[in-house]
Structures are given as structure tokens and as C-alpha cells.
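Shapes recur. Our protein:

. . .
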Amino acid sequence: MFYEVAPTGKVEKLIYGSDDPLLPGQIVLVPLGKRKTPAVIIKKVAQPNFPCKKILQVLYAKPLPTHLVKTIDFLHTYYLAASGAAASLILPIGVERKRRKTEQMFGKSTETEQPTKFPEIPLNTAQKNALKALQKAPGATKLLFGVTGSGKTNIYLKMALDAFKQQKSTILLVPEIALTSQLVRVFQEVFGQNVVLIHSKQTEAERHLIFDYLLNSNSPKIVIGPRSALFAPLNNLGLIVIDEEHESSYYQDNSPHYSAIRVASFLAKTLNIPLILGSATPKVEDYYLASQHFSLVQLTKKALPAAKPEIWLLGVGGNKNRYFSDKLLDSISDNLAKGYQTLIFHNRRGSSPLTICERCGEEMLCPNCYLPLTLHADRYELVCHTCNHHEKVPTNCPKCSAPGIIHKGFGTKLLENELNRLFPKAVVRRFDRDNKKGESLDALYDEVKSGKTDILIGTQTIAKGLDLPKLATVGVVQADAGINLPDFSAEERTFELLTQVIGRVGRGHLDKAEVIIQTFNSRENPLLEYAMKGDYFAAANYLLEKRRKASFPPFSFVAKLEITLKTEKTVLTKVRAAVNTLIKNKDLLVSPPMPSFHERTNKGYTWQIILRSKSRKALLEACQNLDPNFKITLDPPSLL
């Protein structure tokens, strides 16, 4: 007997022989070159007219669910992913290794005792109407547009509970597990030990045991995690929910590239189950598609009565302090007197983003990425936020030897130091990717929620998902810093972040709710006004019109082609040759070759070409005929 098999790794499907009958989805061990690798049986095939190696061992008698086997082919055809790379997304690393027994992690039985009584999920009238609309909306994929604080979580809970009572499992995707402590706790209160978390901090052994547990379980589960949780081997999947569906973390940047939203949509259609995309700021292409297919459901009222926050849009000039406006500092003082909290949002880590020589203007650049190094004053070292290169701050310019090294701009660490100076009695905490273990927002969430922290400072980590009862003021520093980046999604990202951070206040807890937005050019971009008014639809229509004119998603499919070679001359030769070939295809819009955002690294020079087409088939065919040196990213969320 012979079988088509997808071995893990960047390889295509191969054919292997077996003396024993096997089923699609079974996980086996096969020889691949000089090594042995896990693989997934795809299907039985006729005996080929060439010699085949034999399958060495069956690792799991129970096959993967059929929908995951089909996902391997979907990723191959829709994203041009190697079948083996797609299989690697599903199988945990080290799946071939023996582990301690599953009961050490999940108890003596792999079947958790099912609750006999469930708590009632309270829904207000708006939530009940939204739930009915979701159930009636055509198609498998439905978009739940719900303003911040409208109670989307209760709808997720009710739908998951209905599926659970029918012995069906739910997958709930979240952008980052560390940002969703509240959401996880709410689901655990209803489903108890039937909630299974999947996240990147788990060890290889833990991920393996969870995989084994879910594959062999016949009882319903609630699986919560980032995009990788989508591949949980659930045999009775009945619902998929993607919370904060606009988040860029649902797209995998490294190979194989894929959007968890598109894969989830495929799974929902394959299994004929609902996929709920939830957001207060949906991706404009998802909003457009949902509107076209009558699967958009709106939840526009907050669950708790709350006055809209008072919002101020201020320029940075003419204030006593160079970082904070007089209005913001007065608000912080008032909050400290009343026992309220203040949140300061700035989407840049570190102390200073630019270190230069005062005499000759030489910038301190990363030796790997050739990008500006960021000063981290607490450690007094320069750090590259792209490759994590670290080095001490030079005392003299490496080019002209002058001693005048200066630092321009500012990040969250500098703001933290400044606030500690201005308000020495306040408890100030900074939350960003530079936090050490035990200092993260997830680890200190209870302390922050209780109000023991007076001022929170941070990047995107604090912009989303927080519901703090004592939070009265949000201050946004350099709100328009990223709005003019050369990328079709830059404006959308800025609008999303502003809307999310504004949504941290005005949730019905306090009599005070204000947002103070500081900008360079306060009236230049209409999206800032739309964010202040909370007018998502005006923002979406503005962005869609711009994308329609420029032929960007959802009005075309996009591929980013990148090539990296040691010398600039060879890169230019390759990209020009590729463009000359591609422009002959009338179904393609081909950009001129251009340097990538990170043009120069220690690997060489990187240039890129952007392809757009109304036909995905034409785009895929063009990508398949490229020079193999090109790296292909289909449906990129960003061109940077």
C-alpha cells in the first residue's frame, strides 16, 4: 500500500509505502534524507512507477480531524506554502518524542468531568438582537462590529455555551494571550477545567501534551490562544471566534505566511460552522466584504451606561514641559488627588530613538540592519529593535572621534523617568516589550486593576483589552507619528490604535473620563477627527475610497516580492529582470523595483516589487514562475 504524505519541513508531499493500512490524518515517522521526521498521511494512492521508501512508525493511531488534513492543501494552494511547512503548523515540535503521561498535566482522566449546571449568560436587549442577527446572517463568516464596552464577550460566551451543550468545541483566538487575562478568566468561570490555553510561553513538552490531550478527547473543550490555537486537533469543532480581528498578529510574517482569519474562514466553510470576527475597529477589507455579503452585525451601545469621554486634540508647542502638555499634567495632578489612574500611551520603546554625533551628524546604526539604534537609558546601552543587537553607548564619535554624542526623540523609558521626576510620590509603571519576567502587565494585572498603580505608561501592550475601574485619563503622546509611513495600511493602524486607547476610558466606572491627544500636525489627517468622534464608518469609507483608487485590498489581491543578495548590483539586475517579465502580464499591476524598508542588513541588500491583481489565480501563477531567490508574501498586512 502507498500513501501521499506531508513530512514536516519546507518540503512538498512525497509518496511512501506501508505494509499496514493507514488512514488520512494519521501521524507517522518517515525517513527524509539522512533524518527521520514526523509526517501526516494525506491520502492513499496507487503504486507509483518508481521506488519508494517505507513509513518507519505510526506515532498516533488516532488520525487528525479531517478539517486539519484539508487545511494542509488549502495553505498549499492559497498561500503557496510547502505542504510540509503547512503540516509543521499543525504538529507540535517534538511530536515524535515520548513524554510523561498526560494525566500529570490534566489529571487522572483525559476526559474532564462535564458540568451538569451552567450559569446564565446575561444579555441585554442589544446583545440579544445582535446574537439573533449573527445566527440569521448568511454564510459561515460573520463580522460582529461592537464598540468598546458593548459586551461582545457575553455574545462569545453565549454562543460557546450553546455549542458546548451540543457537545461541540470552540476555538477562541486572541491577539496575545498576555493581554487577555480578563477574557480567559470569564471563560474559566463558565467552563472551568474545560478551558485549554495555548500560548508561546509553554514548553515544547507542554505543547505536546496539550496536543495529545485534545486529539484523544471526545468531550467538548474551549481552546483559547493566539493564531496557532486555530490548529488545535479538536474532533468536534462547532464554533470559531476571533476577538480583536483587526490585529496584525493574526498574520504570520515568517514562512509559511498566512492569515489566521482566511484559514479560519476556510475551516468554518468546510465544517459548516460559524466564524465570528469581533472588533470595534474591523479591518476595512473585512468590513467591506461583510457589508457586501450581508453578514455585518452591529453592536453600537455600551453594555453599561457611560458618558462619552471628553477628548482634547492638542499640538506639542507652547507648553512648559517638552513631552507633556499643560492640560495633561494638570489632569494627572487632579487624578492623583482623587485616587484615579492615568494611562500614557506612546508607541515607541526605549529612551531615545536617535543617537548622533553633534559635530559631524554621524548616526549610530545597527551593524546588522543599518537602522538607527535606540538608547535605553536605564541600562545605558543602544539596542536595535529589529534584530535585538546591543552595544554600549560610545563616548566618542566612531567617525570623527568628537566627544559630542547626543540623543534625540523619546520613548517610554524616558517618559517614565520624566513622570517619576514630576510626580515623585506617584506609583509609575511602564509596560512594553522591555519588561522583565514578573514585571509584565499580565503578571501585575491584579495590582494595576486595584488602583495601586497611579500612572501607567506603555506601547500597544496597554492600548487594548484593559478595563480598569479607576482609570480616568488617557494621554496619547505623538499620536500622528506613524500616520504618514509609506504603507497602504499605516493610516488604518493609527486609527485602530487611537480608537482602542480612547476606549480604555468612559466605561461607566467613574464620573471623570477624558482623553488628551498630542500631535505634531493636529488637523492634517481626517482620521484623527474620526477617531475622536468614534466614527468607524466614516474612517472605513475614507480608507476604502483611497484603496479603490490605488487598487489595494479589498479591491485587488497583493503580493510582496523581496530579494536579498550580497551586492546591490546583483539585486538590481534580478529585480529589473523580474519586472520586465512581469509587466508583460496584462492581469498584473507591477510596481517599479524599490529598496525594502529594511534595505541593508548583514545578509546584503533587499529590494522589493509589489504585485496587484484582481485575479488571485493570475497572481499565484506569476509568483510560481519567479526566480527562486525571491521571497513571496501573499496578502501582506503591511508593505514595510
